[in-house]
Amino acid sequence: MKQLYGLEKLRQKHTGTINASKLAEILTNDLRNCECTIYGSIGDDEQIVLAKLSLLPDTLNYEMFDQRLDLNVEGKILRNDCVPLTYCLKGELFSMTGRCSIIARVCGVDLYLCNNYSERIGDSVRQRFSLSIPALLKRIKSA
C-alpha cells in the first residue's frame, strides 16, 4: 500500500494558505534532486537495492490543467537476484513508498515498473511518476 511521508513537514515550512499551485511549487522544489530506489528481498526482511534512479533533467513539471506533478527518473539496474517488490521515491522532505511489480495487473501493487525494466544488470531503466495535487492537498488538510 502506498504511503506518503513528509507532507506535514512541507506544510510547516510554508506559512499561509496552500492552494494547488503553491503545493505544486513546494513539491517541485522538494523533488528537484529526488531519487527512486527499487528494492527486492531475499529471506526474512532483508531489503536489497535492485536499482537506483535519479530525476531526469527538465522532466519535473506541473500540469496545471490536470493539477498533477509529473516526473521521470532513470538509472541502472544494479542486481537481478530477486524480483522487485517495493520502491521509495525520496525528495528532501517528501517521500512515497509502496509495492511494485514488473508483472502487469498484480493485485495490491502501487507501481507497475515500465516495460524497459529488463532485469539485466547494467541496463538503464526509466520510470514515470504522477502526483495528484488535489489528492495531496486533501491529505494535508485532513492531517
Percentage of residues in strands = 35-45%
Which overall shape is indicated by the principal axes computed on the Cα atoms?
globular
Q: What is the domain total for the residues?
A: 1
What is the alpha-carbon Rg in Å?
16 Å
Number of strands: 9
Judged by helices, strands and strand pairing, the structural class is alpha+beta
What is the end-to-end distance?
19 Å
Task: Give the rounded overall mean pLDDT.
Answer: 92
Largest sheet: 9 strands, mixed
Low-confidence stretches are: none
Order of helices and strands: EHHEEEEEEEEH
Quickly describe the structure.
The chain has 143 residues and is α+β, with helices and mostly antiparallel strands. Helix content is 20%, strand content 38%.
